[in-house]
Design a protein that fits this description.
Elements lengths: L1 H4 L6 E9 H8 L4 H10 L2 E4 L6 E9 H23 L10 E8 H8 L4 H10 L2 E4 L9 E8 L1 H17 L18 E4 L2 E6 L2 E4 L1 H12 L31 H7 L1
Antiparallel strand pairs: 1-3, 1-4, 2-3, 4-6, 5-6, 7-8, 8-9
Length: 255
């Protein structure tokens, strides 16, 4: 265990981090220079999930010492960002560096320990705050583990978490968490539907048609009409149907 904690054991691990867009931008750096430097100096493989999602998964793979080095560089970069943000700020207390790990739920029990003994031990020995989410991340069997503190406290905390993960491998199949793209906002103007993409409003013909149909047929039962349905319709009135193709990324806002 001591060898693992000191990074002396050549065991390959994969650690997943959940980051917001701004945090990912900080890790990537201008023209990818920051993440390139982190890869070269740590020796770890650092991959960032694709897509225009509010959240991204950063996967760090390599021997334990390479992982600890990568985490050290990430924590120091975040602290640098915090210091920069406080330069012209009126905030007096410095916020801690915060990282969110994505851990298989089957390993969280070992991380918490009986009666919370293990997580208490990690908090006390490292000085970091550690919180294990009670619920699994959407459509997955993983939970978020939030670590806050100084860069040094975070490194020590990650080392102890790695020891737990090596001692207690995941049980059963793990369904990894995959962040979903943000749904594009929809606006209706002048009888047309538009999806907002960046600074532009893009016409959406299918949604426009749906909007027009909705305006033609009030969905509520008019006053005095006992049978729910559209005005003037009865069992003998022929009805018409309209087939629309609605992309997955905009079906949520419609519902």
């Amino acid at each position: 265990d001591t060898k693992v904690a000191e990074g002396g054991l050549n065991v390959t691990l994969t650690i997943r981090l959940l980051m917001h867009g701004k945090e990912v931008g900080s890790i990537i750096g201008k023209k990818g220079e920051t993440v390139k430097k982190m890869r070269e100096e740590s020796g770890a493989r650092i991959n960032i999930s694709e897509g225009s999602c509010p959240e991204r998964i950063v996967t760090i793979t390599g021997p334990t010492d390479a992982i600890f080095k990568a985490f050290s560089m990430i924590a120091l970069k975040f602290e640098e960002d915090i210091n920069a943000s406080m330069t012209n700020s009126t905030v007096t207390s410095k916020p801690p560096v915060t990282l969110r790990l994505v851990v298989p739920a089957s390993q969280c029990g070992s991380l918490i320990g009986k009666g919370g003994s293990k997580i208490k031990e990690i908090r006390e020995s490292t000085g970091a705050q550690v919180q294990v989410a009670g619920d699994m991340l959407p459509n997955s069997t993983e939970r978020a583990v939030t670590i806050s503190g100084t860069p040094d406290a975070i490194i020590q905390c990650v080392k102890q978490i790695c020891v737990v993960m090596l001692e207690s491998p995941p049980k059963g199949a793990t369904i990894p968490y995959r962040p979903k793209p943000a749904s594009a906002p929809i606006i209706f103007a002048g009888g047309q539907a538009f999806t907002i993409q960046g600074q532009y409003a893009i016409p959406h013909p299918d949604l426009t048609k749906l909007h027009q149909l909705a305006m033609q047929h009030p969905p509520f039962t008019p006053l005095g009409q006992t049978t729910p349905g559209f005005p003037g319709l009865d069992a003998t009135t022929p009805t018409s149907s309209h087939e629309l193709t609605i992309p997955n990324d905009v079906s949520g806002p419609i519902v």
